């Protein structure tokens, strides 16, 4: 992806969050030069990969296949200091923009439509060999049990949410407009806990066609 695209999408996200009165922490707006002046008191942000995260999943077409996220909190079980057992994200899903089919081996998560269009989530259970199972199963939508068949699409209106357990494959996109999506979950581990049905790239290769306005969660400097 071009850095100019990343800058533009983050600026767009900030405006969209503001529209729904969703406020980010102060460091969300730091420039790269501001980050260079920060010390070890900011280490948790780097260690737990908090902050801006944007990916096209290696597709080369972010608006068709991609996702913008901001991780607000996360932990590392067993870490002597940063040992939270939970995580929270806020995401922007564009109209018809696909996040490819995947599940998590460990993480249970609630996905919440926080405003905008409708969030569409297509669901399957994983078979033993980690292919798509044809069996039906139950999910919790706002605390209510629902039976779903393999490949069913759940459409969440603003304010609605779904609980996704480990080994439940899900693919999602928005319809009827850009959508702000929350995630409340167990600890998030993008390195070792994502199982995509088809191989994808997780973090983008960036062409530096203009200076960065913000740093992604993989770009923080070493703190002293």
Describe the structure.
By secondary structure, the chain is mainly beta. It has one domain (3-196): Sandwich (Jelly Rolls). The protein is 12% helix and 36% strand. It has three helices and eleven strands, in the order H-H-H-E-E-E-E-E-E-E-E-E-E-E. It has helices at residues 3-19, 32-36, 43-47; strands spanning 51-55, 67-73, 86-93, 99-103, 109-125, 137-141, 144-148, 153-156, 161-164, 168-186, 195-196. Strands 1, 2, 3, 4, 5, 6, 7, 8, 9, 10 and 11 form an eleven-stranded antiparallel sheet that branches. The mean pLDDT is 96.
The CATH architecture name reads Sandwich
> Can you summarize the main beta sheet?
11 strands, antiparallel
**In percent, how much strand structure appears in the residues?**
35-45%
- The CATH homologous superfamily name equals Jelly Rolls
The helix-strand sequence is HHHEEEEEEEEEEE
**Which outline best applies?**
globular
The number of helical elements comes to 3
What's the structural blueprint in terms of helices and strands?
Elements: H1 3-19, H2 32-36, H3 43-47, E1 51-55, E2 67-73, E3 86-93, E4 99-103, E5 109-125, E6 137-141, E7 144-148, E8 153-156, E9 161-164, E10 168-186, E11 195-196
Antiparallel strand pairs: 1-2, 2-3, 3-10, 4-10, 4-11, 5-8, 5-9, 5-10, 6-7, 6-9
């Amino acid at each position: 992806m071009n850095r100019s695209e990343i800058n533009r999408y983050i600026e767009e996200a900030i405006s969209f969050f503001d529209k729904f009165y969703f406020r980010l922490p102060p460091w969300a707006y730091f420039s790269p030069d501001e980050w260079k002046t920060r010390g070890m008191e900011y280490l948790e942000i780097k260690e737990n990969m908090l902050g801006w995260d944007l990916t096209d999943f290696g597709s080369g077409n972010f608006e068709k296949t991609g996702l913008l996220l901001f991780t607000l909190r996360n932990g590392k079980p067993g870490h002597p200091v940063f040992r939270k057992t939970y995580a929270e994200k806020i995401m922007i899903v564009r109209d018809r923009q696909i996040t490819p089919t995947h599940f998590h081996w460990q993480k249970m998560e609630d996905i919440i439509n926080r405003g905008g269009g409708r969030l569409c989530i297509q669901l399957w259970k994983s078979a033993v060999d980690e292919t798509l199972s044809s069996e039906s199963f139950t999910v919790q939508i706002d605390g209510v049990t629902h039976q779903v068949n393999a490949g069913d699409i759940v459409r969440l209106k603003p304010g609605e949410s779904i609980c996704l357990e480990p080994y439940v494959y899900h693919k999602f996109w928005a319809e009827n407009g850009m959508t702000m999506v929350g995630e409340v979950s167990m600890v998030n581990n993008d390195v070792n806990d994502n199982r995509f049905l088809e191989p994808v790239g997780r973090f983008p290769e960036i062409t530096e066609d203009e200076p960065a306005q913000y740093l992604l969660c993989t770009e923080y400097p070493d703190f002293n």
